[in-house]
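Pasting two entries for a bug report.
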Amino acid sequence: MNYFLNEQQEMIRDLSRKVAVEKIRPVAAKHDEEQTFPWDVVRELAAADLFAIFIPEQYGGLGGGVLELCIAVEELSRACGGIALALAASALGSFPLILFGSEEQKRKYLPDLAAGKKLAAFALTEPNAGSDAASIQTTAVKDGDSYVLNGTKQWITNAGEAEIYTVVAMTDRSKGARGATTFILEKGMPGFEFGKKENKLGIRASATREIILRDCRVPKGNVLGAEGLGFIVAMKTFDQSRPGVAAQAVGIAQGALDEAMAYARERVQFGKPIASFQGLQFMLADMATEIEAARALVYQTARTIDAGEKNIAKESAMCKVFASDVAMKVTINAVQVFGGYGYMKEYPVEKMMRDAKITQIYEGTNEIQRGVIASNLIKEYARKKK
């Protein structure tokens, strides 16, 4: 479909596709097998200015928005969802700074993020606080001009590789969710350590580690927004970032369809290409239709965010849950199109199926997303009846 992208957006799409084909696809299987972080590709992304696309111009960025980020993440994910996550997760860690950072904080951190000299990460999840984010145990105690942080964050994307971290901790547990505060931490701060690198089912090129805080002293100037705004920062960040997860899912699904189409046209059974069999044609048709529907929802949600709409939690959740479910369904069907070959690591679709699964889980499980959608629907209908 024609999404009427402007000239800059088309340039981002074409450049991202070029990087995906020439730089990511040849090394995707190697990084997946060895679980190595793709610094070779990160340097290519930085050289192409892809880390700058969503950062305001006054801080060294290109001044684009969520749609530009989604376009890039989708194209990169067609080649490898794990490698694309180096960009997407850095965007997740950058959004709190863009949305809530002071002028001083933005000028200090955003230029290096825009240039790809440094990566960012976002740290909310803990061993006992996943979907129930309000139950986080990490504490931040004010001590003079600093806060002292203690606790453990789990499953943090880009952890260990990133230089800049936005971390949510409790400053006043008696206030519940209103007692959380977000801090900017830097790799190398005393008391800021990393746990082991996780051995994952999919997105194995992406680094996932624990963050361990032991009496980590953070200057009060590193408070993001204000004390007590931690969960507002987190929820507003997720509203902006979930379309990026959805774009990752769309890209993985499109990559799987590309592979399935090529294989179906080449694989001959009963004297003809399997693409000529109606049962398989219907499967491919459904895959393509669902991908296009997911893409349309993602792009429109991104455009709505970029237009300045504030209450987009429902739409953001919708595009994330729909696109990730499509990605899982499409990649499973792509493996089925390949038959026994699809189950083998020599073919890329088994990796795409493994990579797709996480899109249903992180940045809020799809069950949580459906709860967000339903609660917003109920509120909307209640307002209409008043």
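Entry 2 (this is the one that rendered wrong in the viewer):
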Amino acid sequence: MVTLRHARIPHDRANEFVAEMLRIGEKFAGMERGGDTVYGFFVGVYPTDRPSLREGEA
């Protein structure tokens, strides 16, 4: 499953999301092993050059 969203947020809030993603990544990597499929975990927060977001656009 993949999703892409955009938000105009302050730099400090972006840093909060990065910290949360790192915590979730550590939780994912430390889960009890089992099953037959190996899953990957990929996330990112990055600045874009989008000039604006229209109402309801993410």
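Dev reply: Rendering is fixed now. As a check, the viewer should reflect this: Residues 11 and 55 are 21 Å apart (CA to CA).
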